[in-house]
Write a structure and sequence with these properties.
The complex is a heterodimer. Chain A is α/β, with parallel strands linked by helices. Chain A has 18 helices and 35 strands. Chain A has a ten-stranded mixed beta sheet. The model of chain A has no long low-confidence stretch (mean pLDDT 91). Chain B is of the alpha/beta class. The chains are: A alpha/beta, B alpha/beta. The A-B interface holds A 339-343, 345-347, 349-350, 362, 364-368, 370, 372, 374, 409, 440, 470, 507, 509, 553-554, 556-557, 559-564, 566 and B 57-59, 61, 105-109, 123-127, 129-130, 151, 154-157, 198, 232, 271-272, 274-277.
Chain lengths: 767, 277
């Protein structure tokens, strides 16, 4: 027997009725007279206990007096006629909106036999006395289906249970508005609560409460699946450079497979590009694994993260999750400024020589006041063969053209204060990448402490030692570094760690032991003589960009060392991975994005573009246009308008008519010059998100019911709903007084009190 | 491609070789006089162990000299340890002078307190991507040494070959064929980046110690990755030249200052090329 049944047994009505009603004493003059008479008779009787002695002590007599007084008081309360005043709907004069979840998750058969859709259809059958039959007796019903949008239904047979999204808030809002002009007693919500599209539930609930529209939510399905594995979420970069190692955080949840090991497959267009073993966490918990793959084919790629369906799983569709990754075959131009000629320069340049996606423009101070620019792939936009002839850039316009800056062994004093600030702004405002290399003129040894660049760096610059320090250090990845795209050199974390053990030591000449809060350490260096490990590689997000500190001075040892096999590509891959990662999300002056990468055919998609000038200040008066090329080859031209809310932001929308890729080419023209262009891709496809997080969401449904003044039900007690919804303040109601004097609790109290008095009297021989 | 394989060059070298062979035979028969030879005796077989102290590696540029088993060796008052081991010509003064000049004229961090000597079978050599090799006319390479030298150069090492002339070439070419059977030496001129890596050397027609002995004008031959002269130069051979000699005797009365300068310019350029390209 549940709490509510027990409550109803003693108090005559369910707690819900007490919540809805006001407690009063509906006493008449006769009631007052009877109560007074009772008191008048009782007082002398009570006083009698003073006189009788028997086998009792004063304490016993006091107790008996209290008990008898309580009996009298109880009688008085009953005579004063305690009651509940509630508003009840007038039969057939009020409306009830029935909102039925019509999304695909309703196709799930939680118990393996009956689907949620079948259960709901059963409830909606007019002959079903459990729910709809009783409701129809008392109310005029309006039926709605909802998934991403809500719509009126004439008949439950119109339900298809094929919606691609669930928007509970939208459905409630639609129901409230649709029935707003009618006497509305409440809304009945039949759903699994697997909401994946609501944005403003709180606002909707406030509106419902203000309009006195309670929601009676019925949860469909199981709160926890017996056996299920779900690839819940994937955090992967939207844009990557071609041939970049891509790291994706994959969240996996399971029930019923605790401790088992499964294989996670990463597929690019159906081709397996990576596999890894995953040990499943405790039932109900999530685990995050870092999947790594190489994006070797350019263009928009559908990358699938999949785990094979295991026996007995309730939902099979949630074992694979797709994400759209745009692989860009573009060239990022990186400025490498080196303050001293050293072998590191040549080896880095050679490592990147065949990388068509990274163009390293190298400026070397080969002697005091003598510079060499070593330009690969001259680009007229950067000055062609004369690039960097003027030395390190002196203006923001000049510096901000690059995607990243590599600072070699060059002392801070070489730069003007404005140039140092410019480097800081390059990262924080322009969103560029900064890589600082170890060297005798780098970090604290280079006098950077207290400069703006020190703020940018992810490591703390402690004062340098009085005497020059250097040490050869064995480099090892941190736990985080084992699976980071920059430092993972193996298919698995363990393989990566093993690979690092065989790497030759590197020389460090800058003692760096602390990373800043918020920075991540990827590599550490140790030796027998060091007490604290050296931070060899760390990074942090800084403003709009990111910075990396590589404190080693001779990574070329990973190429040149005697123990390194001739065909080993670790050195090349390290540099390529690191620089690709550094520039991966460095955007240009025009940055386009869609409000979502994947959408269903027929949906409206918003193109959002941020526009900056060459110093990366937002531009509000640009002409921004987009060409949307659909899968059928047709093009649509969009004029984007400034949103006013955000400086430099422009928006326009288009409708994805058919399934397939939509490429959006955006161009922006300023008052004086072209500001640039960008390309963004989205895909219209059959979405499977309804099968993710598909367990019945009791929390959400109960919240909807509670905050709106309604009640939450499951299949076990849904038959109580028709009765409860009668007690409503919405619609056409009458006030009803419900007697409480005859509730069983009073009877049991009376019997208990009189019985205990009688027992005491018998024992103490007072009778 | 200009290579030693060309017919004209080969004919010239054969003549030069025969002439030098005769001269050498005469030289072995009687002690020579002059600035290069002051006391000489010839031996074959294992060379005596010699003591030297390497400065090691600390990240700065450090002169690294390659030693090898010469086809012959002898006693010599003018060379280190009183021995003419071939690979030790101009040691240690040349090995100190070049870093001193390099540190003075460039911004490179340079080790001037000492230098290193390594055999080709010594893993430590691989920590110094620039190395100096001389008197290769007498060089003998074991299979493992040849393999190591190949790895060293393919991984990114740069080798300066110096101090050889005439018929020395044949031995050098034979030994290098063990290292890179697929590569050929390609003659390079002043337009190659190695001659402009720091100093602009438009004219390479300066003298050499061999010139003073009747040798030809120095010529420069390179070994390139994939035999492609547009790719990385892995080895430069100063044929008919001995810039180590100029480094060694820099500042002395033996050497004209212009020749010293040119030799140092070449050396600095070689180092800068290996560092930056």
């Amino acid at each position: 027997m549940g709490f509510e049944s027990l409550f109803e047994f003693f108090f005559k009505y369910k707690p819900f009725v007490f919540e809805r009603g006001d407690f009063v004493f509906a006493a008449t003059p006769a009631s007052f007279a009877a109560a007074a008479l009772l008191v008048a008779v009782a007082v002398p009787i009570v006083r009698q206990y003073r006189q009788v002695q028997g086998n009792s002590t004063p304490r016993h007599r006091l107790a008996l007096m209290i008990v008898r007084a309580a009996v009298v008081a109880l009688g008085c309360v009953v005579l004063l006629r305690p009651s509940l005043v509630v508003a009840t709907a007038v039969p057939q004069q009020n409306f009830v909106g029935v909102l039925v979840d019509d999304s695909r998750s309703m196709q799930i058969a939680d118990g393996g036999v009956t689907t949620r859709a079948e259960q709901v259809s059963n409830w909606l059958n007019p002959e079903n006395a459990e729910l709809i039959g009783q409701l129809e007796e008392r109310f005029r019903l309006r039926l709605f289906s909802f998934s991403d949008v809500a719509r009126r239904l004439d008949d439950a047979a119109e339900l298809r249970f094929s919606g691609l999204r669930t928007d509970v808030a939208g459905a409630l809002e639609a129901g409230r508005q649709e029935l707003g002009g009618l006497p509305l007693s409440g809304l009945v919500l039949l759903s699994d609560g697997a909401d994946n599209d609501s944005e403003s539930l709180t606002e909707t609930l406030n509106a419902l409460r203000q309009a006195d529209v309670p929601v009676f939510a019925v949860g469909v399905g199981e709160e926890t699946f017996a056996r299920d594995i779900e690839v819940s979420r994937v955090e992967a970069p939207r844009d990557v450079m071609q041939n970049a190692a891509v790291g994706a955080d994959v969240v996996i949840r399971q029930r019923g497979f605790e401790g088992e090991t499964v294989q996670l497959y990463v597929e690019d267009g159906g081709r397996i590009v990576s596999t890894m073993d995953v040990e499943l966490p405790r039932s109900g918990d999530s685990t995050v694994v870092r999947a790594r793959f190489v994006a070797d084919e350019a263009g928009p790629r559908i990358v699938t993260f999949r785990i094979d369906v295991a026996e007995g799983e309730v939902v099979c569709q949630n074992n694979a999750l797709e994400t759209l990754v745009t692989v860009r075959d573009e060239q990022a131009r990186i400025l490498y400024f080196e303050g001293e000629p050293r072998h590191e320069v040549g080896f880095i340049r050679r490592a990147l020589h065949d990388d068509r996606n990274i163009a390293l423009a190298t400026l070397v101070r080969s002697a005091p006041n003598k510079f060499q620019s070593l330009i690969v792939d001259p680009d007229e936009r950067f000055g062609g063969e004369h690039e960097l002839f003027g030395g390190f850039p002196k203006t923001r316009e000049e510096l901000y053209r690059y995607s990243a800056v590599v600072l070699g062994s060059v002392e801070a004093d070489y730069f003007t204060r404005d140039q140092l600030q410019m480097i800081d702004d390059f990262v924080s405002q322009r969103g560029g990448g900064l890589l600082a290399l170890g060297g005798r003129r780098s970090f604290a040894e280079g006098g950077y402490a207290g400069t703006p660049v020190a703020e940018t760096l992810p490591v703390v610059l402690d004062p340098p030692a009085a005497e020059a320090w250097h040490s050869e250090l064995q480099v090892a990845p941190t736990l985080f570094g084992r699976t980071h795209p920059v430092t993972q050199f193996g298919e698995t974390s363990a393989a990566s760690a093993e690979r690092w053990e065989t790497m030759p030591p590197l020389l460090a000449v800058n003692r760096v032991t602390r990373a800043k809060p918020g920075a991540a350490i990827l590599l550490e260096g140790t030796s027998e003589t060091l007490t604290d490990p050296q931070v060899m590689l760390a990074y942090q997000r800084y403003g709009a960009g990111k910075s990396i500190a590589l404190t080693a001075a001779d990574t070329w040892q990973w190429q040149m060392h005697y123990d390194m096999p001739l065909d080993d590509m670790t050195h090349e891959n390290f540099w390529r991975q690191m620089l690709r990662w550094l520039v991966a999300d460095v955007a240009g002056q025009v940055r386009a994005q869609l409000d979502r990468d994947r959408f269903a055919a027929g949906e409206t998609v918003t193109v959002q573009v941020d526009v900056f000038d060459d110093t990366y200040l937002a531009v509000n008066d640009a002409d921004v246009a987009a060409t949307v090329a659909g899968p059928d080859g047709r093009e649509e031209i969009l004029d984007l308008a400034w949103t006013v809310d955000v400086d430099g932001r422009y928006e326009a929308s288009f409708t994805a008519a058919a399934e397939g890729f939509y490429q959006v080419d955006v161009t922006a023209v300023g008052r004086d010059a072209d500001l640039g262009s960008d390309v963004v891709t989205g895909q219209a496809a059959e979405l499977t998100q309804e099968f993710f997080g598909a367990e019945m969401n009791r929390e959400l449904l109960a919240r909807v019911a509670e905050e709106s003044g309604g009640r939450f039900y499951t299949a076990a007690n849904v038959d109580e709903l028709p009765g409860d919804i009668t007690f409503t303040e919405g619609g056409t109601t009458v006030t009803e007084v419900l007697d409480l004097w005859d509730m069983p609790l009073f009877f049991f109290l009376f019997v208990g009190l009189v019985g205990s008095e009688w027992t005491v009297r018998k024992l103490r021989r007072l009778a | 491609m200009i290579g030693l394989g060309s017919r004209r060059t080969a004919r010239r070298l054969v003549l030069v070789g025969i002439t030098l062979a005769l001269i050498s035979a005469a030289a072995w028969a009687a002690p020579q006089r002059g600035w290069r030879g002051r006391g000489f005796s010839s031996n074959s077989g294992p060379t005596p162990d010699v003591d030297y102290e390497n400065i090691g590696y600390d990240g700065r540029f450090t002169f690294a000299r390659v030693k090898f088993s010469p086809t012959s060796w002898g006693g010599s008052r003018q060379h280190a340890w009183g021995l003419d081991l071939k690979w030790n010509h101009d040691y240690p003064r040349a090995d100190r002078r070049l870093p001193e000049i390099l540190g003075a004229v460039t911004g490179a961090e340079v080790q001037v307190a000492g230098s290193n000597i390594y055999g080709l079978d010594d893993p430590e050599l691989f920590r110094f991507p620039w190395t100096y090799l001389c008197e290769v006319g007498f060089m003998q390479l074991s299979d493992s040494e040849a393999g190591n030298l190949r790895d060293y150069m393919l991984k990114g090492g740069f080798v300066v070959v110096d101090d050889f002339t005439g018929w020395h070439w044949f031995n050098f070419e034979t030994e290098m064929a063990k290292v890179f059977p697929e590569l050929r030496f390609i003659e390079i001129n002043s337009t190659h980046p190695v001659f402009n890596a720091f100093f602009e050397l438009d004219d390479l027609s300066f003298g050499s110690p061999y010139r003073a002995q009747g040798g030809g004008m120095p010529r420069y031959f390179g070994l390139f990755e994939d035999n492609d002269p547009t790719k990385r130069l892995m080895m430069i051979a100063n044929y008919d030249n001995d810039i180590g000699e100029f480094w060694e005797f820099a500042g002395s009365q033996y050497i004209l200052i212009d020749l010293e300068n040119d030799a140092f310019k070449l050396g600095v350029n070689y180092v800068m090329y290996s560092m930056l390209r």
